Inverse folding.
């Protein structure tokens, strides 16, 4: 980003925590160290301060557990704390933390404030900028900077001192000895499944694959037949000239086979090495492409550059080895061929001498030519099965990819829901348990839960407690390692095909994202809605202005844009206006104006949207998610931290909108911000994969259990 005016001076090293954490496919430790030296004492101090030590106990290999690309195998709160730990570990002078607290529960939020951000924390003596939508932490800051529609105001204050609490992860987990950890610790490289496949499997897999037989068999037949015919013809010709040379054919086949097998083994071993080095190379390359900003930001270019150079060198070395082994094969076969050819020629001459036949130079040349061709084609024929196997291996690779992690059937003909299904929004979990892998602990344990149609349910709990997992199983995103059943309107959902079932529910996920294209494509990728419906939902969510003009493309105007910023701007204009203008504005405001949504902003829905972030803030992306759900009118809606990135006021209006729009729907709202779920009919408190508490907000507060503790922890004594 370029500074377009004014001056700026930066003294010291700056560290930045991004709002949407970027995580590489490597161990938790590698993600935190990010190319920097391992300082054991400070490292564990940081893990403790980020409340990560409790999570380590749940993971099979502690901090050496491999985290998948973009942290797909950990919870949203764990991703956020991992990124925070990486930032804190960077030992900078200035820290810019972009919304570090929205993805964590009240207890962890307080732990992070006490142990990292406030004066009692690791960064207590550093300059810290914290962007947040949590108004209740503002009194704890030295200065409050408000950004409204690109305008900045600063308010200095004496920070409120609150009592620190010794919660979450008080004990510091010691790292497991590296020796005691199993092989799976290493960064997840794509496994070379095909290496263990026998030739028979490759053939049978390939021939049962769709259409392979149609394309391959005629080619194989013509190639094989023409080769065989050639060899026979040449052999006949050579044998006609010197029948006793028959003995050399088996020798020729044998030597060619040995050479070809040896060489294939070498090239296979090199190819295997190359494949794993390629995946390493691709990992480093993807790091360079996607993580370039982070690498620059943390000033770890030399480390990643040296990794890149090493990978490139390994890649080149293997490439050279492969081509020299192929050269060796070529030379060896040529030498053997020449030797056989010379012996055959000598024998041919000797035979002519002994039988007293006069040998013409043309005869010898013809014999030698035929022998060369025979040798060449025997070699080709011997090599042929290997060539075919290699080609079929590709089919096998595709097949292997297609069959990896198969989903439940898309459509089950014998059980298809009617167009109106579900008739109501009743949900029931019966003894439901789920693990993410056979070797992992239960993410959900024995869930028994009945939700009435139209009920509004709030789901809270510590980070990693299993809230999102509950939503995932409802959408049947996890299909293995589950037991028990889930029923909707009395029907077991596992009986439907996922393609029939999933579209019947609505969801705003924890991390919304946008496709590249236009706003229209983002709202309605399948072209199911008309323009009025799209504008209607945009207006309801106060997002119409995002599509309204080029104004929003100006960066400073786009900063912090949300539902209320338009209102704030109007308020400021009102304050600045003369009395005459105020009278006019007053009258104009009261004149009823029918708004045709389509006319409001011509072509606004075709406004281009960039891939991933779409040029919108995280809060705006979440509101886009809400627009999509409103348009689709489902009976069951799941909101997974759907408003975590918007400010409190916006959250309130969104909750109001949800209550109004989804009056008759069953709504499950997962949220760390307790205000979001306080008006729910019932609240579920999840803990370590189980339902720890369930009841109305009043019942849970009176019970003085986990929910009451979360509420107490979040108020900072204000
Ligand atoms: N794809 C996955 N593979 C393996 N483990 C996973 C996966 N997703 C989540 N987990 C683990 O399952 C547990 C529950 O995760 P879940 O995302 O349900 O927690 P959560 O309560 O939603 O947390 P948060 O509030 O941080 O979002 C965590 O320990 C997490 O590490």
């Amino acid at each position: 980003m370029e500074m377009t005016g004014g001056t700026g001076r930066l003294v010291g090293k700056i560290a930045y925590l991004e709002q949407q954490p970027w995580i590489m496919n490597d161990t938790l430790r590698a993600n935190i160290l990010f190319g920097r030296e391992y300082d054991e004492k400070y490292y564990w101090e940081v893990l403790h301060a980020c409340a990560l030590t409790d999570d380590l106990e749940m993971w099979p290999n502690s901090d050496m557990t491999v985290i998948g690309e973009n942290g797909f195998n950990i919870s949203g709160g764990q991703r956020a704390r991992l990124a925070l730990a990486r930032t804190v570990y960077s030992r900078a002078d200035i820290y810019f933390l972009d919304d570090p607290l929205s993805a964590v529960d009240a207890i962890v939020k307080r732990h992070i404030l006490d142990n990292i951000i406030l004066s009692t924390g690791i960064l207590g003596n550093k300059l810290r900028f914290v962007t947040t939508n949590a108004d209740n932490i503002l009194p704890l800051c030295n200065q409050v900077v408000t950004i409204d529609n690109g305008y900045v105001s600063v308010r200095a204050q004496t920070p409120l001192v609150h009592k620190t609490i010794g919660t979450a992860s008080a004990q510091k987990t010691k790292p497991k000895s590296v020796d005691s950890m199993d092989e799976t610790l290493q960064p997840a490289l794509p496994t070379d499944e095909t290496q263990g496949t026998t030739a028979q499997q490759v053939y049978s897999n390939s021939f049962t694959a769709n259409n392979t037989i149609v394309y391959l068999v005629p080619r194989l037949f013509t190639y094989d037949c023409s080769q065989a015919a050639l060899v026979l013809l040449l052999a006949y010709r050579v044998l006609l000239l010197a029948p006793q040379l028959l003995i050399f054919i088996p020798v020729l086949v044998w030597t060619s086979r040995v050479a070809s097998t040896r060489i294939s083994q070498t090239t296979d071993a090199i190819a295997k090495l190359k494949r794993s080095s390629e995946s390493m190379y691709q990992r480093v390359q993807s790091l360079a492409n996607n993580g370039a900003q982070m690498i620059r930001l943390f000033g770890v270019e030399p480390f990643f550059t040296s990794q890149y150079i090493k990978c490139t060198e390994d890649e080149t070395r293997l490439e050279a080895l492969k081509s020299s082994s192929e050269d060796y094969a070529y030379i060896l076969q040529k030498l053997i061929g020449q030797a056989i050819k010379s012996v055959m020629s000598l024998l041919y001459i000797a035979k002519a001498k002994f039988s007293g036949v006069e040998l013409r130079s043309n005869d010898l040349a013809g014999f030698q030519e035929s022998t060369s061709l025979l040798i060449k084609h025997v070699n080709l024929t011997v090599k042929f099965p290997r060539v075919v196997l290699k080609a079929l291996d590709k089919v096998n690779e595709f097949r292997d990819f297609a069959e990896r992690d198969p989903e439940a059937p898309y459509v089950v003909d014998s059980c298809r829901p009617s167009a109106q299904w579900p008739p109501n929004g009743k949900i029931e979990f019966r003894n439901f348990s789920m693990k993410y892998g056979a070797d992992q602990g239960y993410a959900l344990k024995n869930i028994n839960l009945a939700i009435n149609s139209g009920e509004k349910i709030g789901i809270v709990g510590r980070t990693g407690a299993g809230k999102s997992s509950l939503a995932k199983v409802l959408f049947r995103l996890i299909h293995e390692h589950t037991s028990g059943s889930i029923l909707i309107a009395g029907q077991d959902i596992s009986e439907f095909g996922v393609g029939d079932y999933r579209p019947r529910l609505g969801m705003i996920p924890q991390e919304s994202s946008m496709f590249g294209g236009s706003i229209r494509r983002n709202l309605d990728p399948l072209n199911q809605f008309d323009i009025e419906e799209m504008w209607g939902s945009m207006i309801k969510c106060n997002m119409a202005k995002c599509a309204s003009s080029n104004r929003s493309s100006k960066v400073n105007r786009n900063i912090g844009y949300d539902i209320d910023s338009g209102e704030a701007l109007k308020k400021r204009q009102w304050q600045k206006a003369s009395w005459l203008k105020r009278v006019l504005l007053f009258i104009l405001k009261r004149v009823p104006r029918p708004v045709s949504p389509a006319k409001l902003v011509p072509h606004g829905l075709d406004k281009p949207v960039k891939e991933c972030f779409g040029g919108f803030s995280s809060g705006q992306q979440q509101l886009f998610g809400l627009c999509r759900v409103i348009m689709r009118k489902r009976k069951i809606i799941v909101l997974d931290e759907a408003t975590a990135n918007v400010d409190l006021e916006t959250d309130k209006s969104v909750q109001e909108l949800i209550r109004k729009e989804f009056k008759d729907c069953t709504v499950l709202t997962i949220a760390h911000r307790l205000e979001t779920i306080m008006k729910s009919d019932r609240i579920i408190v999840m803990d370590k994969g189980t339902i720890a508490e369930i009841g109305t907000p009043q019942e849970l507060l009176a019970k003085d259990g986990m929910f009451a503790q979360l509420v107490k922890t979040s108020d900072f004594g204000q």
Confidence is low (pLDDT under 50) at residues 167-196, 549-566, 595-602. The pocket of adenosine-5'-triphosphate is lined by residues 58, 72-78, 436, 443, 461, 463-469 (CB under 6 Å).
